[in-house]
Amino acid sequence: MKRVLPILLLALIWGVGPAWDGLVNGNILGHGHTDLFPSIWGLWSFAQEQPGLPNETRLLGHPSGMGYYFSSPIKGWIATLTIPLFGLVSTWNGLLIAARIATVLTSWAAARAWGLGEKGSLAAAALYGCSPFFHGYAVEGIVEGTDGWTLALWLWALGAKRFRLAAIPFALTVVSSWYLGMVACLLLVLATVWDRRALWSVFGLLMATPALMQFVSAFPGTAPLEDTVRAAMGGHLSIPTPGIHQGLQPFAITTYIGFVALAAALWSRSRWTLLAVAPAFLSLGVGPIYDLPIAELVRFPYRWHAATLVLLAPAVAQATEEWRWGGWIPFLIVLEGLCLSPVEPIIPSTDPTIPEYVSHIDGPVLDIPGPVAMAPGVINRSRKRARYLMYYQTAHKQPSPWVPDFNSVGVQDTEHSVTLKTIAAMDPLVKNDRTHSTAVFNPKILKDLEVNWVVLHRRELGETKQNYIGKIFEDAGWNTRLRSSNHWILSPDGTAKESH
Fold it and tell me: What is the pLDDT of residues 110-128, one digit of tens each?
């Protein structure tokens, strides 16, 4: 028990500690201005479907629906069982904490399987499992990003020479995250050089093929990024501003390694340090490799960093075991990551409260303003609207005609695109033109969208524009069902009702 106590304590503290404030306040863990609400909506919508790998949803793009693939099927399958028992918020938080703990434990087990000592394995787990890289996923609310345990589980199987069995965690790695699957393929090449029996993992890639096919069929319009945009989504060779000083930051892209880990890896003079240079370079998002097929589709090259951490781990472990005071290295790695990396140390959290007006929605609903599709690499200020467009939908369960922008992957035209663009022209974030302006908007065009409710959001529209649009609807025969300081809810029929 004494041998495993340090890693158990590290896993528990890392899993719960940075999330404690959000947990005790009953909040949703993650930053609400980036991927959190699309992720939690995806978890909920996946659980509404029959078990499998759905590639479309009827909850968005109403009335015809739209292509959609949830990026974390493993969490979705678990959520199908746990949401009815514990609720959506507790399921989200529980899966996040479990993933953080599992990533630390499996990376330690992998290190032990590869022959590293007790202190060295603890350092490897600190470097990989407690990295700012994986911590950043938790901060942003990126659902698939926190499952670093799948890659570590595959590495454990290889280290234990369970080569046939390794095909299963390899498949889990690919399904859990396309980017971790990309990393696993790179590491498989190196593992095959070490032992050709590692090629058994290729069967895992075949097992994951149905998921890949569903993704491709859901988002057929995926196109390569421009080089400048990809580079912006890559790592940067600079000393970052510590996240501990920045307050709440919605973006947590980082390839931070840390001075302690880097010094230990360089001191070890291990071949592993040299091998880590390859994924470190790839994570910059530049170079001719990104002109090649498949590589040109990599949208977030910084995520190669998982491979850099894996390859640096044995080098850091070697220094940990050889230095006299090496036992302090795991502690220093974690402390430095929390204090000096660009990712804030405490996982932010978001109020899960859903306003009372949502309980009145009992049919297809159009929220105004809606999502705005913007070019990759451009900060999209409409992302925070996912709270009412998607999270509130988990309560009223009614479809929406909007087709959200899933990181510029899910943008697609529908038979109602013209109508939606006309509505979007009233958005403060969209520059109006002569063709689509509020002056020519006619609520009668909503007939094609088959909506029974319209919700005007004052915070996003502003009071003047909300009143102007609301007056257009009332003049067209729509009735105010509820009006508060922040929302104006209308439907084609009903009795006016005031709420403040």
Answer: 999 999 999 999 999 999 9
pLDDT confidence band for 436 (50 / 70 / 90): very low
Question: What is the predicted pLDDT for the residue at 46?
Answer: 96
**With helix as H, strand as E and coil as C, how does the chain read?**
CCCCHHHHHHHHHHHHHHHHHHHHCCCEECCCCCCHHHHHHHHHHHHHCCCCCCCEECCCCCCCCEECCCCCHHHHHHHHHHHHHHCHHHHHHHHHHHHHHHHHHHHHHHHHHCCCCHHHHHHHHHHHHCCHHHHHHHHHCCCCCCCCHHHHHHHHHHHCCCCCCCHHHHHHHHHHCHHHHHHHHHHHHHHHHHCHHHHHHHHHHHHCHHHHHHHHHHCCCCCCCCHHHHHHCCCCCCCCCCHHHCCCCCCCCCCCCCHHHHHHHHHHCCHHHHHCHHHHHHCCCCCHHHHCCCHHHCCCHHHHHHHHHHHHHHHHHHHHHHCCCHHHHHHHHHHHHHHHCCCCCCCCEECCCCCHHHHHCCCCEEEECCCCCCCCCCCCHHHHHHHHHHHCHHHHCCCCCCCCCCCCCCCCCCCCHHHHHHHHCCCCCCCCCCCCCHHHCCHHHHHHHCCCEEEEEHHHHCHHHHHHHHHHHHHCCCEEEEECCCEEEEECCCCCCECC
* Mean pLDDT across 50-60: 90
pTM of this prediction? 0.93
pLDDT band (50, 70, 90) for residue 446 = confident
- pLDDT in the model for residue 240: 84
Asked if residue 442 has pLDDT above 80, the reply is no
Predicted pLDDT of residue 232: 83
